[in-house]
Structure formats: C-alpha cells, structure tokens
Design brief:
Blueprint: H1 11-33, H2 41-57, E1 81-83, E2 92-94, H3 97-111, E3 118-124, E4 127-134, E5 137-143, E6 149-151, H4 154-157, E7 177-185, H5 188-200, H6 209-217, H7 222-226, E8 231-241, H8 249-258, E9 268-270, H9 273-286, E10 294-301, H10 304-310, E11 312-313, E12 316-317, E13 320-324, E14 329-341, E15 346-358, E16 361-367, H11 371-377, E17 384-388, E18 396-400, E19 435-436, H12 443-454, H13 466-474, H14 491-495, H15 502-515, H16 520-526, H17 534-544, H18 547-551, H19 555-559, H20 566-577, H21 579-590, E20 612-616, H22 624-633, E21 637-639, E22 648-651, H23 657-664, E23 668-670, H24 672-681, H25 691-695
Parallel strand pairs: 2-13, 20-21, 20-22, 22-23
Antiparallel strand pairs: 1-6, 3-9, 3-10, 4-5, 4-7, 7-8, 10-13, 11-12, 14-15, 14-17, 15-16, 15-19, 17-18
Helix pairs in contact: 1-2, 12-13, 16-17
The structure holds zinc ion.
C-alpha cells in the first residue's frame, strides 16, 4: 500500500500507520457490520490513540481514508446518549379479535364510556426515532434505545431525504419546540440492490431490511448512511413546548403532514371493534403489495385527553395496542442442501424444500446463509424445518422444527471442503463467514460472471440469461467473456443448443452485437471486478477514458480518484496484474469492444471548475456528501483534508480541527450561504481583507 508521503517519512512509520489503519478498519467492520467485536474497547482505543499520535507527528501520512478522519468517536462511545423527555414506549400485543375486544373493553371500562374513536396505523417493521425540531429546524434525532435513553444519530438522520430538515408552513403554526416520532425503514425494493452491492464489495449480506436499516442508521460515518436509501414515516407527536397541543392524534398527524413530514397514507379511523377488524383484514390483504415490511396494525384511542386519562399500566400505554400478524412461517421437509458458487467464488448453501405455501407464496427453496449457520443450527437433510418469509425477502430456514424426528442414520451436514464446480479446496478466512473457491478459472464462477456481464445493469445482452450462461461454456469454445464476441462465427454450433431455435440464436447474436455500443462505465462494471460497483466504474471511466487506460492505471493514480480507497485500488492493480485479465482486455479491444469515454469535462465555464474544496461541520440545507457531489458535478475537487492546495474550506456548524488548520494555512473559509451562491449563481466568494496581508 502506498501513501502520499514525502521521502523523509521513515519507512517504519508508514508501515505501522498502515497496519494500525487496517486493524482499526477491520475491528470497526466486525463491530458495526457483523456485530462480532474482535478488539475490546481498550485495545481499540490504544490503536486509535497510537495512530492519532503518528499522524500528528507526521502530518504527511494523513489520508482521507484513515479511520481517524471518520466522523465520530470510538465504537463504544460512537454516539452520544440522549435521554428522552417523554419515554418512547413499547406497546402491548394482541393476536386475535378476542384479545383486541378485551383490550378495548378495559379501556372503555376505565373511562366509563360506551365507545371511543380510534385510529388504526400500519405497524412498520423498522426503527423508532424521535426527532426534535426547534423553531421548525431539525435539531436532534435519537433512536428509541431502551425507551428511556437512546443514541444521538442526528448526522445520519440528516441524510434521509424524507426527513425534513426544516418544517414547512407558517412559522406561527409550528410549535417553537417539539418532537416528532416515526419509523425509519429500508424499502424492500432497495434491500436486494443493497445486498448485491455488499456482495460486490465482499461484505456479508444483511439478513432482512430491518437489520439493514439499523446497520445503516448506526454507521459512524454519515456519508456511508447517505448512500443507503432509508425512508421514514412519522406517526406521532412527542412533546411540545410553547404551543397548544392538538386535541386528537389524527389532528396531530394532519399537522405533521402539513409541516412536510411524511405520514403513512393507509392510516384510518375506526369507531367500533368491527371497523378495526375490517381495517386489520385490509392491512393483511395489502401487506404483500407494500414496499416495506409490516408486522401488524397499531390501534390508538384518538383523543389526546382520553389518552392522558388512560395513562399507563407498567410500561405499556392503556390507550394503544399492537395487533400482531401471525408470523409468516411454515413447516416443511428439508429435502436436500445444495451449494451455489457465486461470481466472486462465495459458496452459498440453500435448502431444497418440499414446496409449501408461506404468506400466500409457494416456496420450494430457501437460503441457509452460510456454513457456520448450518453447523450452529444443525440443519440436516431430511429434517422437518421452520421456514419464514418476510415481504420480498428471500425465504429463509429458521430452525429445526420441535416436531422433527431424526432416524438413527441421520448425519450432521458436511459442508463441502472442495468447490462443487471445480473441486478446488475452498478457503474460509478468519474474518469472514463466507467460504470461497479461489480458483480464477472455476467454471461456476465463469457462468455467474457471464450472467452478470450480460445483465441489464451491465452490458444488457438480451437472450443471454441464466440458462444460456450455463450452456455456452459447455460448448467448449466459450471460456472467456471475449469469446462471446466471436460467437457469430459459430451459429451452427449454437443451433445445437437445447431449446435454441433460429430466432433465439439470431436474437442472442443481435444482442451481443448491440452491446458493443454500451458505454465504458457499463463495460467496466460488467467485468465483475470485486469492489467495482456502477458508481466506481463511472469514476474510473471519467478518469482513464478507455479500457487500456484503466488496465495500466497505477495505484497512485487510482488513489487520487475521489471515492477510490486503498482496498479498491489494490484490488484493481492486483486484478490487472493477472495475465489472463490483461489478455481479456486486449482481446476485447481487438474484437472492437472498446468504448471510449468522451464525456466533456463538466461545465468548464463554472468558476468552481478545477477548484479544490474541503467541506466540514454540519450544513443546514444539505449533507456533506450532497455538497461534495455538487462540487464534483461542476468540475471541482472535494477532498478530505485541508492542505496548502485547498482553495476553499466550506465550514458548517461545529467545524473542528479542519477549520483550525485552514486558518493556520490561511485557506479561504466560506460559510454555507456563500457556498450555495458559489455553486448555484457562480458568485465567487470574495476574501475579506486579511490583517496579515495588509501588513505585508
Ligand atoms: Zn470452483
């Protein structure tokens, strides 16, 4: 690994800093992503302190990728504690109509009333948040935590686009201080993409959307959260200061909506048990069509004065109850365990099941996650198992059924020690749950690569799907991606393939021909290099402009690209160091698959073009990543640390050491308003007369 060091830095300092960064990054990943801490707090802290000291003594080794540059503190103290002014409650549960009737009767008896209007809301399977607004401006966001105390996740919540940073409407209608509560979630439709990207980057997949929403919200680096498509529904008013409280919950929801807060449209009023049950039945019907998971319906007494009278029993409010849907689970027989080999060589076990209906869908296969999970839960072929399905998520095998009876010859499942496709011994590194085939010529990996290469998001070759990707290599003359561009010479052989008539073969060849005009970023992404997603493919394309340019890129050149870190840079250099891969690129070029990126440099006439910015502190109207994107879109550079080459430091609230450094280095510091005028109206901020220069 190389750093932008000057030659006076002792080699051992560079090496030690690199080592510490790797250790800390790895520990962070284990802690945050996999929930499996490796270093204890003291060990972590010791390494961080040592790295901070090294970087302080040798500023030239500082790098934007260093864990010292992340927002936040050590994991154990990553987020400040927040005491909720009004506790965030849990709700009691009921599971059927009788249970609900009993709850409603208790509430009415308590109030000595005949009936009380209610509001029904979908119970969204996400994370509860409390967001404080002061004079209409978002001040703080806290997780529910244990209900009494949560974590301050303001910086991360700022990145969620559906959360207003400033409330809309007449200032007189907005209480001076108030707290809005709601649920953060990751849409089901985005969940699959997120997991694909994680697999791309060699990270373990999230188990479900809820788990990914929680992981995303608790990122120490808010620019990371900003990349996650989180969304939020507001469902209640917490506390209010200096204004009249609305008279009912439904009025509060209307007000929140008026202020620009997103509320759930399904929400409905009900006056009787029958109306509530009809609403619950409807929720069950629409459940599968929603883009978020729900696990029931919450029923609240609408009047806030009645809510106050009802109060609490223990920790549960008497005025609200959750009607939980039965879990979408079913039991069936695990007929066989199979292992798939993915494009990056990851071995993924899956269960072949006796088909069974779960939540309205027939399920014949389900994921078993990984080798360790199978061992831990002792899943065996022939077992009676519980399977589960939530929303659009891949069905999973949860556990061995309590009713399972094993025959005497039942054996624990033996995970293959060799790749099921090429027989190469598999590798499981200590820090990964994933078992891999590391053979670069593994046929199964090649099939997956071909499928990926041809997929809609990559080269978009119609007619080259999963089945054809498996059939082509078997013909014996397709052993590299480049070979598909020679297929037109082999039309007769293709016609021999199962189910491939004249039309299909023609369409396939036409699709392959058309893919030659796919732009360079698509082709770079299609190559399936670990860590290169569609976004980094864009950056590489803009910088190097052609396949051969990328092929010969040096690590220094790669590291100079914003967004490309040392891990990806190393992976790329390693990839192009392999003779086979260099050959592939040469073959593609020779075959005329050689798109050139001639996108003009962005808006060369904008004054920000070529100018170097550092953005620090908290901005009011946008996240730091948004600011950085805007700079880049205008041709400017957004870097992570202040140096003599920095032209402007954009300083938001609570700007810390970067502001000090900018002042020391006499870098022009501008505020958010000046920055926006610069970006949007091309107004270059003028520099105030500095006393130093006046003296000089
Ligand atoms: Zn293999």
């Amino acid at each position: 690994m190389q750093f932008d060091t000057d030659s006076s830095t002792p080699d051992d300092v560079v090496a030690r800093a690199a080592e510490l960064r790797d250790e800390i990054n790895r520990a962070n990943r284990l802690y945050y992503v996999e929930d499996a801490p490796e270093l204890d707090d003291a060990e972590w802290d010791g390494r961080m302190q040592e790295l901070l000291a090294l970087e302080a003594a040798h500023p030239e080794i500082q790098s934007p990728d260093s864990p010292t540059q992340r927002v936040g503190a050590p994991p154990s103290a990553g987020f400040d504690e927040v005491v909720h002014p009004i506790p965030m409650l849990s709700l009691g549960n009921v599971f059927d109509e009788d249970g609900f009737r009993a709850w409603y009767k208790r509430a009415l008896d308590f109030l000595e009333l005949e009936s009380a209007p209610m509001v029904c809301e979908l119970k969204i399977d996400g994370l509860a948040l409390a967001i404080t607004y002061r004079n209409g401006v978002m001040e703080r966001a806290a997780t529910r935590g244990d209900g009494e105390r949560g974590e301050d996740v303001t910086a991360n919540v700022r990145t969620i686009r559906s959360v207003p940073l400033k409330l809309e409407g007449n200032a007189n209608d907005i209480p001076p201080v108030m707290e809005l509560r709601g649920e953060v979630f990751l849409p089901n439709s985005k969940f699959a993409t997120l997991n694909e990207e994680r697999e791309e980057a060699g990270l373990p997949a999230y188990v479900n959307p809820r788990n990914s929403a929680s992981g995303s919200l608790r990122q120490l680096d808010s620019t990371e959260t900003a990349k996650r498509p989180l969304d939020m529904f507001f469902y209640a008013l917490g506390y209010i200061e200096g204004a009249q409280e609305p008279s009912s919950h439904s009025e509060a929801l209307e007000a929140i909506k008026g202020w620009g807060g997103r509320t759930n449209e399904w929400t409905r009023k009900a006056n009787t048990v029958e109306e509530v049950m009809a609403a619950i039945a409807n929720a069950g019907e629409v459940r599968d069509s929603l883009d978020y998971g729900i696990d029931g319906v919450v029923i609240k007494i609408d009047s806030l004065s009645l809510q106050r009278r009802l109060g609490f029993v223990g920790r549960d409010p008497r005025w609200a109850i959750a009607y939980k849907f039965p879990a979408e689970q079913a039991e069936t027989t695990l007929k066989a365990i199979h292992v798939n080999v993915g494009r990056t060589g990851a071995l993924t076990p899956w269960a072949e099941l006796d088909p069974v209906v779960v939540g309205g869908v027939t399920v014949g296969r389900a994921t078993l996650h990984n080798k360790d999970e199978i061992a831990r839960k002792d899943f065996r072929e022939g077992d009676r198992v519980v399977i589960q399905r939530a929303g659009d998520v891949i069905p999973q095998v949860v556990e061995v059924s309590a009713k399972n009876k094993r025959s005497d010859d039942s054996q624990p499942y033996a995970f293959p020690d060799n790749c099921p496709s090429c027989e190469t011994p598999t590798v499981q590194t200590e820090d990964e749950a994933v078992t891999r085939c590391v053979n670069t010529t593994c046929p199964a990996q090649f099939e997956r690569l071909l499928e990926h290469f041809a997929s809609r998001v990559a080269m978009d070759i119609e007619g080259l799907g999963e089945r054809v990707s498996q059939d082509l290599p078997r013909l014996g003359f397709v052993s590299s991606i480049a070979d598909i561009y020679r297929l037109h010479e082999r039309k007769d052989d293709l016609l021999e393939l199962d189910k491939m008539g004249e039309t299909r073969v023609d369409n396939l060849l036409k699709g392959i021909e058309a893919s030659r005009s796919q732009p360079l970023p698509k082709l770079l992404f299609a190559l399936g290099i670990t860590g290169i997603g569609s976004e980094s493919a864009e950056w590489l394309s803009r910088r190097f402009r052609s396949l051969s340019g990328v092929k010969d890129a040096t690590e220094e050149e790669l590291l100079a690209i914003d967004g490309i870190g040392p891990v990806v840079a190393t992976t790329l250099v390693d990839y192009f160091a392999i003779e086979q891969n260099r050959q592939l690129i040469d073959d593609l070029i020779e075959l005329g698959v050689n798109p050139i990126d001639d996108t003009p440099e962005p808006s060369a006439d904008h004054p920000a073009n070529g100018v170097t910015f550092v953005v620090t502190g908290r901005l009011e109207t946008m996240s730091r990543s948004e600011a950085q994107n805007r700079i880049k879109s205008l041709g400017g550079k957004a870097t992570g640390s202040v140096t003599g080459k920095t032209n402007f430091l954009v300083a938001g609230a609570e700007a810390g050491s970067k502001l000090d450094k900018a002042n020391r280095l006499n870098v022009h510091v501008i505020n958010e308003t000046e920055f926006i005028a610069f970006m949007e109206e091309s107004v270059v901020p003028s520099r105030p007369e500095s006393p130093d220069s006046a003296d000089a």
